[in-house]
Specification:
two-stranded antiparallel ribbon
Length: 381
């Protein structure tokens, strides 16, 4: 973990050198934060290791689950104090590998989550940096591309499902699964010139509430710039609808999907001056917060919060800027703010979990893995 501390100090030195008004103790304060993050991550990883099942997996409702296991071993493998050769990682990897199928997918049969399981497992395999896994990684990439809704399933570019990815096994596509596929392909080294990215971009664009680039009726005349869950079935948002103008309600955009769509466009190498990217950045500036899943209404605002933190970190890392200026002109050093927020939410036993239990966020192993992965992104090696 000492490399993380050095890395953050170097980032801080760079920031101080370009800002004459920075306080003289800016580097020291960042070093203190990095030390606290190290302690928080250490406690979180110890909690995870203690929860490993006899079969090597981590459980959902008392039964080991390959997707949660993949997230956990990725967090462990990326940590200098553990790494890919740690016994817990090796046992977890052995468990995940029992779900590799001849078609290249990594999933539980008959659960209908082939894309979700394969995508998360592919990210974990890529984090191992093990040449012996190259063949399995390549086959998993190919499997995900075959699952993508395109001409192979009889869907042309004009269809709202085109380019998207669902849970798998014939289910309709959504932005969450699509961004997960793209994250896995990107992390595992697939070239951004691969057609899978361009196809996915067609679907991602149709999830953005931006009338001038989205050809779906539900986005007509919208200038919102945020993203919804899916253009399938005439559009769907897990945040419901809102009255954007006097005559009709519109699908409500929200944080986790907006950062997912924003990140996906960046992975697809969409230019920063592209109107789709600019509109997404404007939305992020308008709704910037780490206190809730942005623009989710009322009691729903805490739902999917840790998924949001994870995708927020990955999106901001892909954006490549250290500070985001919100609509009020306030600068946000996103790395430090994310670390402070997550540390404030950690429990005494080292875990994180969400009392607003939706999308499995009541599971402390899943949520602790999300949190550590977000912290690792905020404090890169």
């Amino acid at each position: 973990m000492k490399f993380r501390l050095i890395s953050l100090m170097l980032v801080s030195v760079s920031a101080v050198s370009t800002a004459a008004a920075a306080p003289p103790d800016a580097v020291r304060l960042d070093f203190q934060l990095a030390t606290r993050v190290h302690d928080g991550v250490r406690k979180g990883l110890a909690f995870l290791v203690a929860g490993q099942q006899p079969d090597g997996g981590w459980a959902v409702s008392g039964k080991s689950n390959p997707a949660v296991t993949a997230l956990v071993i990725k967090a462990l493998a990326q940590d200098k104090d553990y790494g890919p050769k740690h016994p817990a990682v090796r046992r977890g990897l052995e468990y995940v590998m029992t779900f590799v199928h001849p078609d290249g997918g990594i999933y539980v049969e008959d659960e209908g989550q082939n894309n979700y399981h394969t995508s998360v497992a592919l990210m974990a395999l890529a984090s191992m940096k093990n040449p012996a896994l190259i063949k399995t990684i390549k086959e998993a990439q190919d499997y995900l591309k075959k699952l993508q809704w395109d001409e192979g399933e009889g869907y042309e570019n004009s269809h709202p499902w085109y380019g998207g990815q669902g849970y798998g096994s014939g289910k309709r596509p959504d932005l969450s699964n699509t961004q997960m596929m793209l994250e896995a392909l990107n992390e595992s080294g697939l070239s951004p010139d691969d057609p899978a990215y361009k196809k996915a971009l067609v679907f991602v664009q149709r999830c953005q509430m931006l009338g001038k680039t989205n050809d779906q009726p539900f986005a007509r005349d919208s200038t919102d710039g945020g993203f919804v869950y899916s253009p399938a079935s005439a559009g769907e948002s897990k945040a419901g609808t809102e009255t954007a103008d006097a005559d009709r309600p519109r699908l409500r955009t929200y944080g986790s999907m907006t950062y997912a769509g924003f990140k996906s466009m960046l992975y697809a190498k969409v230019d920063r001056d592209d109107p789709r990217v600019k509109a997404a950045v404007e939305w992020i500036r308008r709704y910037y917060t780490l206190d809730s899943n942005p623009n989710m209404p009322g009691e729903q605002s805490k739902q999917g919060l840790y998924y949001y933190y994870h995708v927020f970190a990955r999106a901001m890392q892909a954006w490549g800027e250290e500070t985001m200026i919100d609509d009020y002109g306030a600068p946000h050093r996103w790395r430090a703010e994310l670390c402070e927020k997550l540390l404030s939410l950690q429990h005494a036993d080292g875990s994180w979990y969400n009392e607003a239990d939706r999308w499995m966020e009541g599971n402390p192993h899943l949520v602790t893995a999300y949190s550590i992965l977000a912290l690792q992104t905020a404090l890169p090696e």
